[in-house]
Amino acid sequence: MSKFADFQLPLIKNEPPKNYGPQSVEREQLVAAYRELESQLPVTIPLGVNGKDVKTNDIGEQRCPFDHKKVVARYHRASPADVQAAIESALEAKKEWENLSFTDRAAVFLKAAHLISTKYRYKLMAATMIGQGKNIWQAEIDAAMEIVDFLRFDCKYASELYSVQPPENSTGVWNRTEYRPLEGFVYAITPFNFTAIGGNLAAAPLLMGNVVLMKPSDHAVLSNRIVYDIFVEAGLPAGALQFVPGDAIEVSKTCFNHFDFAALHFTGSTNVFRSLWGIIGENVAHGKYRTYPKIVGETGGKNFHLVHHSAQIRSAVVNTVRAAYEYQGQKCSALSRLYVSRSSWEAGFRDQLLQEVKALKVGAPLEDLSNFVGPVIHRGSFDKLKAVLQSAAADSEVEVLAGGKADDSTGYFVEPTILLSKNPKHDIFKTEFFGPILAVYVYEDESLEEVCELIDTTNAYGLTGSIFAQDRIVVRKLTERLRNAAGNFYINDKCTGAVVGEQPFGGARASGTNDKAGSGMILSRFVSPRSVKDTFAYADSVLYPSNL
Ligand SMILES: NC(=O)c1ccc[n+]([C@@H]2O[C@H](COP(=O)([O-])OP(=O)(O)OC[C@H]3O[C@@H](n4cnc5c(N)ncnc54)[C@H](O)[C@@H]3O)[C@@H](O)[C@H]2O)c1
Ligand SMILES: N[C@@H](CCC=O)C(=O)O
User: Fold this and answer.
1) Least distant ligand from the CA of 145
2) Does the keyword RNA-binding apply (predicted)?
3) Which of 201, 332, 430, 505 keeps 20 to 30 A from 518, CA to CA?
């Protein structure tokens, strides 16, 4: 592969938001795209193997969470033989894909970003709204802005990584570091809740020259397939990315049993990730793989807001409501435990919080644009959340301050709920519910150290957290004290809404490997660097001076 210049990437900037206000062009175009997609349901989705659509005899259904009778997609499910074929054709495609220059690989993803920002923006948003139950704004920040940002910033970070070269060359020597793609294939498993994350789980390793098998979440097959099609339209060669929806355990088993399995790129729940790590670890112990697979996973959270008595109350309330209830609390970053000082609680926090939460409208995204809270994703989630509400209502240690009801007559709707408890070790402060349920503990103003200890040790997670305080000395102390409690830490802001290029995202402890999606750090997990020493001097004596 000849090289005649060091090309510069175009200036990489965040995708600007559109605002979708009344009478705006973007609102009109989005609604039109939504209606068009709605008229085409159910969409048939084949596998994408070696660049070809493959149909199987095994059909799965993705249903609309706010209207569960409506089938959004009928998707073909891969058998073990289909997955095996996908792996072999990915390994075949690898030779050409990894030998393309970085410029050409980056061009594919910059073009995909452009296509999503323009031609496919509203289609991808509509699929995310109908399939995953997002309202307009939540779809815009995910299926338009964040995915475009991932694709563009990945190119910038990859280019920066490639430029990291050994700082020293002895006389007559040229040292170089080559960032080789992994030997084998990458297996990407996507979550339901972010179209952008699904896209980036495939795109990040692909950009570094890897080939990828993508198993979409059963509840995001439509949006994930549109992303796959966009990558292909942008010039991704056949076979570099294989789209294999199917039984999660079966598809994974075939991947994990393959000698050339080189990396897992996962986003989803903690328990699933732990079990996958166990399977891979066991296989490693039996020498099943060519190389030690990389394991990259972003998982659950039980994220906190800590409101100090010096906090500006109104701002802390507004941020609390948004963080807990946007997208029905189904962001891994969502707020689910609030620790508020008694004086703030009594000086207006409580009343404003209740007033705001009771005013939140619940319903389908386009039925009424003022609906702030939509449906939870599926029957399993609805049943689990309903059981949490029932047990809270019967629990003498818990007071239901707002919400508490659930209705699945048309869609999976759960009321935005506030649970107050005097027991800070209650399960409501420990378990990730992944729904619109906020647990509240009111602490005495003078017990700041005790509350920090609670935040840090009550559960196993370490994903996101925020502190609200105007007193700068307190801000400094809390920032130090809670250093390991969150991988994304916010001061006087909500614990959701990380922006690629601004706040690389991820947490440690039970929340994941903290490789930070939307940064160069994660890209470095998908390469196997080679150090090359190129010597120009001739050797002419075996003995060293010290041997003389
Ligand atoms: N930390 C982050 O960056 C981040 C981002 C988004 C979501 N999440 C987490 O994801 C979870 C919600 O997403 P979800 O409901 O899609 O999670 P999930 O764990 O149920 O599913 C995630 C993916 O794993 C697959 N899967 C499920 N069981 C499997 C098994 N036994 N073997 C192999 N694959 C399996 C699913 O089919 C899906 O594709 C929450 O816990 C949330 O906190 C974390
Ligand atoms: N990056 C998103 C969360 C992604 C997880 O679901 C945020 O910061 O809110």
Assistant:
1) 2
2) no
3) 430
